[in-house]
Write a structure and sequence with these properties.
With 445 residues, this protein is of the alpha+beta class. The chain has 3 domains: 125 residues, no CATH class; 176 residues, no CATH class; 113 residues, no CATH class. Strand 3 and strand 4 form a beta hairpin.
Length: 445
């Protein structure tokens, strides 16, 4: 558990360092793009690579299923390797000391998490209370609410968000200034910044002890304000009026409420310089766009692919082991003990595999991994009598609950050839040993 947590933390830290380098390379481009990168760095703390690895393992890679093939050496190597090599592991010399340390660490973490969660809850309650007490704004500001609280313009609520405008500020701003400040808050709503901020609040609650988490939060705040400023200017608002409106809001503010997005958030000096300057974000360009796309796909696909490869190698090794176990097993076949109406059943145990109430055509379909209708030819008695097949193995079958029945292919072919004289052909090739009565399977193996 501790080792897995350490792996997750340092992998997330490495991801954070990569995000920081990418944002440095994109510092002349859109702030909205950099904000998304920081959000991904935040979400990475919630999604460990091991989860993607596990999803990939459920998919797996198809096993080769070759009868005389040895287990893949690659499978052995991959099974002994982890997704990313950990730089170190914790070792405890005494179990009681180890448990005491765990209890102390958990208590410290829980206390910090509860403290951060309480601040989050108070901020949410404060913003929600202000939104409920506010009254609709007159005129064309349909998304705005007027409040008598001494706050700055801000967006409240994650769902059905509204812009809170303090009544005392309305008379201090000119119409162009108010329009620009209000447009800034509307951009927060359009970008769903409160939702993104609350996602990061969850990360801060769970990983409050990690400095990178608080750094990410600060960068997300800076970039989201810069992104809204860029959109306000792109929509034609005058930069001088916009900057003057922000400064007037600063003069008005004497106390701040706990709200998620506010007009004076971020580095005000840098924001005002940008608003009054002539610099605008550059286009991303084809090269940077393709590099970002490739990096995103690679980061997501690498653990998925690794999990699939490792699981595929495991399946291949398991298949080879069971192939050898069933190859030396004693097979017997006789009339079915249950009635014709009973369904076909496959029962697998460590030293015994039983297929009950199966016709010979059904048995061939099972052993070759195809649908029943793909087994063509042969006499009518392939379908009418029902049989019970039993395999007794001296070597235990590995993981019998997930037994790949294709491991029965060679012994079943030999049994049907010797007992019933059946010749099974796949893609016109006889599967040795060959009997006298031809049965064909047109399935792909």
């Amino acid at each position: 558990m501790i080792a897995a947590l350490i792996n997750h933390l340092w992998q997330s830290t490495l991801f954070f360092c990569g995000a920081w380098m990418i944002t440095r390379l994109l510092r002349a481009n859109s702030a909205s793009l950099r904000h998304w990168i920081w959000l991904l760095a935040s979400v990475k703390f919630l999604v460990p690579f091991s989860l993607l690895f596990l999803i990939g393992s459920f998919i797996g890679m198809p096993a080769a299923r070759i009868a005389d093939e040895q287990p893949l050496m690659l499978g052995d190597a991959l099974q002994s390797a982890s997704l990313l090599v950990s730089p170190g592991a914790l070792r405890a010399t005494d179990a009681s000391d180890y448990s005491t340390v765990l209890v102390i660490l958990f208590s410290i973490w829980l206390g910090g998490a509860l403290f951060v969660a309480l601040r989050w809850l108070l901020a949410w309650h404060s913003a929600n209370s202000l939104a409920r007490a506010a009254r609709p704004a007159p005129g064309a500001l349909s998304d705005a609410r007027i409040t008598d609280a001494d706050i700055e313009p801000a967006v409240a609520r994650v769902f059905r968000p509204v812009v809170l405008l303090p009544a005392a500020l309305l008379g201090r701003l000119t119409e162009p200034q108010m329009n620009a400040v209000f447009a800034h808050e509307l951009e927060h709503i359009e970008r769903r910044d409160n939702l993104k901020a609350n996602i990061h609040r969850l990360v801060e609650t769970l990983f409050w002890f990690h400095p990178a988490v608080w750094w990410i939060g600060r960068q997300m705040l800076e970039e989201r304000e810069r992104a809204c400023d860029e959109r306000v200017l792109d929509n034609g608002h005058d930069g001088a009026e916009y900057a003057a409106g922000i400064l007037e809001v600063c003069r008005h503010c004497r106390a701040g409420a706990f709200v998620s997005a506010a007009a004076t958030s971020g580095d005000l000096t840098r924001r005002v310089r940008y608003i009054l300057g002539n610099a605008r974000p550059r286009s991303l360009g084809v090269v940077k766009a393709m590099a970002l796309l490739f990096a995103t796909v690679a980061i997501t696909a690498a653990p998925l692919f690794a999990g699939a490869v490792v699981e595929g190698a495991h399946r291949q090794e398991l298949f080879a082991v069971n192939l050898r176990a069933l190859g030396s097993a004693e097979f017997s076949i006789g009339p079915a003990m249950s009635g014709a109406a009973s369904p076909q059943r496959v029962i697998a145990a460590p030293n015994e595999v039983v297929i009950r109430n199966s016709s010979l055509r059904d048995l061939i379909a099972i052993a070759y991994g195809v649908e029943r209708w793909r087994v063509v030819g042969g006499p009518e008695w392939l379908d009418s009598p029902r049989y019970d097949l039993r395999a007794l193995s001296k070597v235990p079958v590995s993981d019998p609950e997930n037994l790949d029945l294709l491991a029965l292919q060679a012994p079943v072919t030999e049994l049907l050839a010797s007992r019933f004289g059946l010749e099974i052909r796949v893609n016109h090739r006889c599967q040795a040993p060959c009997g006298k009565i031809r049965v064909a399977s047109n399935a792909r193996r």
